[in-house]
Specification:
Serine Threonine Protein Phosphatase 5, Tetratricopeptide repeat, globular
Length: 338
């Protein structure tokens, strides 16, 4: 179904651009330029549904700017059924088309670069650390200097009992650079790399270092949802859940469907004693990430804190059904249900 939806969106976006060019070649009207810009935006929205470097909130800004342009152009250059000062008009239209095309190209390249690593990210997220290690080793076999692969190995090496290799993996990641990558996406990749290093320190329980790298990442790309999430989790671990909410909220403005971020916000609210709010957020998280064991576990923890052990048992069982090796779920089971 998602594939059909994507194809329809692509078709509508391309059709809008083609029609705008046909109409524009026949006779000028600002509506046609807006139609072209709208076509570009539709394509970009479709692209942003995948692993993207552009988020819907940014696209909304572009849409608003485009609408304002459509409103202002007729005031500057009144339409009387003939082309009026076409040089100025064409320049304005061209600027918006260039912005849209730039966005599409940058988005496509960035998504392609990051998508290479996504299977490994998913395996790590689902606690399949050995499989994730094998995946990234495969990447490093072809490119021993791949910074992102080294960075992500440093996230789970401790889980595999190889803590002594963690610092070396981080060093190899940080020694690399993205000079060989297209200039359009170098900053995004550098920010992404630093956020992974922050994640690595989070896993080794060095929370101040995790926040340090998350902050470095956000200095380069202030819209890095991954880094905001790392920053928020670190604050929870440092028993400052009230401060973490700000970072989760910022991340969710950019990506409202981020299941991991929703889960962590729910956990922060739980630790603040805001159980009803926490339940609402965790239900949203389950909607977007029902395959993730740790989200079911978080709901079980919330219900236990609310003294609803019977309900909690159901959600704990769901967590273990998805991942029999979930250590946190097993600890909770041993504490309350055995």
């Amino acid at each position: 179904m998602k594939k059909i939806y994507s194809l329809i969106i692509y078709f509508l976006g391309i059709l809008a651009m083609i029609l705008s060019l046909i109409f524009y070649s026949i006779d000028f009207n600002p509506l046609y330029s807006f139609l072209g810009i709208l076509g570009i935006i539709v394509l970009m929205i479709n692209l942003s549904n995948s692993n993207s470097c552009i988020y819907k909130s940014q696209l909304l800004i572009l849409l608003i700017i485009s609408f304002i342009a459509w409103t202002i152009i007729p005031q500057i250059i009144p339409y009387h059924g003939i082309r009026s000062d076409p040089e100025i008009t064409e320049f304005i239209v061209l600027v918006f088309i260039i912005v849209g095309v730039y966005g599409i190209i940058r988005q496509k390249i960035c998504s392609k670069e990051i998508s290479i690593y996504m299977p490994g990210f998913e395996l790590t997220d689902n606690r399949k650390y050995q499989e994730a290690n094998d995946f990234f080793d495969g990447i490093l076999k072809n490119n021993p200097e791949d910074s992102i692969a080294w960075a992500y190995k440093s996230v789970f090496l401790r889980k595999l009992g190889r803590s002594d290799e963690q610092d070396e993996a981080r060093k190899k990641a940080l020694d690399g650079n993205f000079d060989h990558k297209l200039f359009l996406i170098r900053k995004n990749l550098q920010s992404f790399l630093l956020s992974i290093i922050g994640h690595s320190y989070l896993e080794s329980e060095e929370y101040e270092k995790a926040m340090e790298y998350a902050d470095k990442s956000l200095e380069i790309d202030s819209k890095n949802v991954y880094s905001m999430n790392i920053r928020g989790i670190s604050l929870i671990k440092l028993e400052r859940p009230d401060e973490s909410i700000k970072y989760f909220n910022e991340a969710l403005k950019l990506n409202p469907k981020a299941a991991n971020v929703l889960n962590n916000k729910a956990d922060a609210l739980r630790k603040m004693g805001e159980y009803n709010k926490s339940l609402k957020i965790i239900d949203k998280s389950l909607k977007f990430g029902p395959e993730k064991s740790f989200i079911w576990l978080t709901k079980a923890e919330i219900l236990i804190d609310m003294k609803k052990e019977d309900e909690a048992h159901f959600y704990l069982n769901k967590a273990l059904e998805i991942d029999r090796g979930n250590e946190d779920a097993l600890k909770l089971q041993n504490k309350y249900f055995i």
